[in-house]
Amino acid sequence: MGVTLAERSRHAVWHPCTQMKGLDQAPPRAIVRGEGPWLIDEQGHRILDAVSSWWVNLFGHGFAPIREAIIDQLGQLDHIMLAGLTHAPVVELSERLGALTGLGHAFYASDGASATEIALKMSAHSWRNRGRPGKHRFIGLQGGYHGETVGALSVTDIPLFREAYAPLLRLSATLPSPDPRHAAPGVSVEAHTTACVQALADHLAEHHESTAALILEPLVQGAAGMGMYAPAYLSAARALCDHHQVHLICDEIAVGFGRTGTMFAHQQARGADGQPIRPDFICLSKGLTGGVLPLSAVLTTDEVYAAFWDDRTTHGFLHSHSYTGNPLACRAALAVLDTFERDDVLARNRATAARLSALAAPLTRHPRVSSHRQIGMIWAWDIDTTDPTFAARFHRTALDMGLLLRPIGNSLYFMPPYVLTEADMQHLVDGAVRTLEQVLAHEAVSSSARAERLA
Known about the structure:
Low-confidence stretches: none
CATH topology of the largest domain: Aspartate Aminotransferase, domain 2
């Protein structure tokens, strides 16, 4: 028997966020085909992609409209540099994103961390061009995640990442998260939100002259275990940033394109005029192409754009990527926008979310679930466990149940593609419950064995 694809990968491929030694015991699962929300491995096993392959896949694998758009574009123009040249797909995509967000200037890269870097640099550089060079510091939130490049890590508050590369970072201020799981005992959600708003107000009152921008994930902090918070915090943050002349950067990389029930998460927050708030920057990636090709975009205001409009090269935005605005990726993104318009995806998602929430009642009522939350097409349950290997064991056991699930710490979450059938949803819930029971039973046996050894 020949060497399997998984074995070859273990030796040749350095996998992301992975302790490679662990692959000796749990080699990577080799996937050879994707069909809708399903993945098929080299043994023919079907695995439901319940996390959208790291939150990117919107309409399932092999989605025909995206595939056909890419094939059509490949017959016309595969790639050109975007410095001094342009093409129809990037122009149309920029215009349509501008119409959806009210931000009419799009700068492109290939991934979410790059989008974060662009937004941070663009914010600080725009203040310098406007004669305020002291405004070059940033604010992030407790538990916030914005990518793993050096600049993005400076506004990311995930200790595992920050501590490993601390000598390389210029850490930004980190303010309390409005996620109610951080509230002190007996403190209501509303009171906790108010306290977090006050912490932001106090910080900006003291440091606004040196602060370029506040960056946050609107409504859902993904890497913090799908921590969810009220739109009221966003509304207050917008008002405070306006008052103190600080940019608001909304990182919609994971939560954009319908994940939270609206096209973009920040649109659920309202200003004093009753209209959805508008950030100064929006970072997009992941679902932008339906999870098919690498692409990210940063959208910004006329005011920021005008700060770079000058005869001097030094006043231009000094940033570039070789594959900026790739035509194939832009056509995939246009197919995504077409699908939202043609199929009323948001309405369909509301029906899917209601049904999956009902089916997931056994998880929500499970005696070892300490808290649960849901918004749009994102669900999360905190499991009462002290086992540091819980997430890894759950992931491996779920694969054997035909599910791709990757808990974050003790937080189990679903973020599936938008195309689940009733049977798919039942498979997801039944498999997740069975996996949880099996993992917890193993934990109980291990705890008992440890107690016997210590006795």
